[in-house]
Fold this protein.
Amino acid sequence: MAEGGEDDWEAVTYLRAKPKSGTAARSQQAVNAAQRQGIAVETQKKFSAATNKQRASGRDAARLDRETEELHHDRVSMSVGRAIQQGRISKSLTQKELSTRINEKPQVVNEYESGKAIPNNAVLGKMERVLGVKLRGKDIGQPLGPPGGKKK
């Protein structure tokens, strides 16, 4: 054997965790063994254990139950849908042709015409330019003025 104990194959060191005390045995096997031996076993169920809840939910849940306001996104009005449809027909465009001109999916044009779409100013602006009809503001359906018409 070499000096310094580097080749000492005889010495064996075991590192073990200390066994749990009887009151803190949490494994199902330990509980079953205690029950077989007739030892009284006490179990406690923790409320909201192993969840990511920061505080009690009772107060917030009651407030949500009392809430009667229905929250939803605004949709495009039917007058805008009719104006798009009339402008598209006057230019003799199909929904697909209009969608390709404004670089959107045909489904987007369909949703705007049927009043199911959530208004997007970028999409409405592109439709206004292609159709030549105002789709935003007070004068919906009126012809769109020339670009830069307000300069004096």
Remarks:
- The longest helix spans residues 78-90.
- The mean pLDDT is 78.
- Residues 16 and 46 are 30 Å apart (CA to CA).
